[in-house]
Predict the structure.
Amino acid sequence: MRTTRRQFLTMASMGAAGLGLASCSRGDTGDGGGGDASGDGTSLTFTWWGNPVRNENTTNAIAAYLDENPDVSIEAQPGEWASYWDRLATQTAGNTAPDVIQMDMAYISEYGGRGALLDLDEYGLDTSDFLEGTADSGVIDGTNYGVNAGINTPLVMVNTALLDQYGISLPDDTTWTWDDWLAMATSITDASAGAVIGTSAIISNDAMFSAWLRQQGKELFLEGAQLGFEVDDVTAWLEFQQKFADAGAMPSASQITEESSVAFDQSMFLTGKTGMAMYWSNQLEAAETASGAELTILRFPSLDGDATTRKAWYKASMLWSASARTENPEAAVAFINWLINSTASGEANLAERGIPANQEVQAHISDLLSDPQQRVAAFISEIEPELGDTPIAPPPGGGQFGALLLRYATEMLFGNSTAAEAASGFYDELTAAVSGS
Amino acid sequence: MSALGELSKLKTGGHQTPEQRAARRKEASRDNRAGYAFLAPWLVGLFAFTIGPMLASLYLSFTDYNLIQSPNFTGFDNLVRMLGDERLHTSLRVTFTYVLVGVPLQLIVALGIALLLNKGMRGLPFYRSVFYLPSMLGGSVAIALLWRQIFGTDGLINQMLRAFGVDATIGYVSHPDYALWALILLHVWTFGSPMVIFLAGLRQIPTMYYEAAALDGANKRNLFLRVTLPLLSPIIFFNLVLQIIGAFQSFTQAYIVSGGSGGPSDSTLFYTLYLYERGFTNFQMGYASAMAWLLLVIIAAFTAINFFAAKYWVFYDD
């Protein structure tokens, strides 16, 4: 038998149709069915991003809640930060968003402003024991879309053992400047002959760029979806960061690209390839667990060499939100109330999500905290005199800040654009993103 | 063969009486009903899961749908924005490079391996399976992750190079000059399914043509160019059409290798990846739907061009 024209066309059309079907059927569901309703009792789905320590804590917390509430069932959906937001967006679009959602400041107005999140106050959220100024982190235009799951602050972690090996001493973090960071990172790279790179990159780090801006009296975002800085600020930042690259004090553009999508415990700092890195305070325990080394925490630097002018801030490390389309809003908020206010939840989670905002829980667990968590708790209270105003939640579209800056910054680092070109490209695209186009 | 049978039936139909014809019609309509009954599961799937969503996305492409709130009709706004969207143009450039380089390379490799395997060697089923294996795995997340490990800055390739004293510091999946080529290599590596189809096609070529040509003194090169290629051209065409359609829709590899960003500096920003980013990261599902329809138009155009060009080079032996 030879191939005839008719056989060929049949084969081709079947194959083409098959391919078309396979690919078109994905992603076009605008109006899918509702969530899964279970028969008896209340069932909740619960999602969070995290790390092995948090996953274990959270699993224990869920077990404790189920012991107290045997008629509730909870389906856990743990995830990784890198893929968490894609999945949440997909689930939200498909009308299968989890009932209880671990939310981030960067995305809360994105989801809340579009009506995807429940008004927690309406269903009896209880923040009566919260530390002053921590109860309304997730309130946007008068609606409470998320409640503080722990207090957090940005800091610098240093792998002291690694530094000792090369005879590098720690800076005085009450007086060090951004230039000192560069000098220290350079000396680590030089002393180890490149075996250890000075510092993990902060070039596209929104917290460090924000800190640097705030010390100049500016902000990332202003009320009304405005940017609080100018193109020139970005140019200056990128030019400063280029010095790290020129000195070999931070990873190459390729390594930065690769690092942007690896799991928490695979980062260059936690695998001993860099000497220091920016992290959030609540990550210290997980970081020490992952790296197996004791890490030292430092204040991020200031421009003037005086820590009291460094404009530090407390941030809700993450927030508890509920889906606006949950079938059990009362049960979802009851679970959130338990997470933030019960000592049992405090005992399970300790300070891994940040220091609890509920003062009673905070007092109850202070003796139970692990060594790294105690150090963080002490650090957080120590830096209180150094606090500036609390930054506002980024507007919708602002959640892309890090990804956008990374793209333009690596383009500069690969030598495909100048700092000024990268800065203006970034600025234009971010402006467009927050204005909703 | 079957076509001839149909023809002869049609001819005899002309000599029937009106009664016989009515009876045949009745029988035929019963046959049709049975046919549709058997087709029903597929038709339900077609309308519910393909046509329906496609029409929905056609409507959404004229709206500002953001996944959460109900859509507002915005006319041709999305199309106008697509004209000025530089990243969209980048993604088209990346995707065209991938298709126009990756598909021909893959087919050449597939044909080459098929020719080797067609020499009647021992253990053919084994080799066939071995060469087909990458195709089974190639589209998977695991292989994309493996690719990232092998071609990363501290990946297998660079470690081997360093063992030979080369100062290898380039991450092939994370450098804008190389990342797309690493993905094209991955595509070429999954040559298995066109290879199997080529192999089947090669076995259908009657040996008498080769014998006759050999008697006339044709050398190997001429046998290939003047016997194998013309008789295989329908199969080449078939593979070409399917692989082009498939390559335009590539998503998984780029998504995993670049961590969903299309990076470094948009060098692996496949069209589908950008579409996904617009739809699910930026919540612009209306715009993403418009992009999906542009992709459909592009693929349709390529397929039409393919079929038109086929008149000039595809040889049907019937």
User: Anything to note?
Assistant: The CA atoms of residues 117 and 323 of chain A lie 5 Å apart. The domain at 42-152+315-384 of chain A is CATH 3.40.190.10 (D-Maltodextrin-Binding Protein; domain 2). The radius of gyration of chain A is 24 Å.
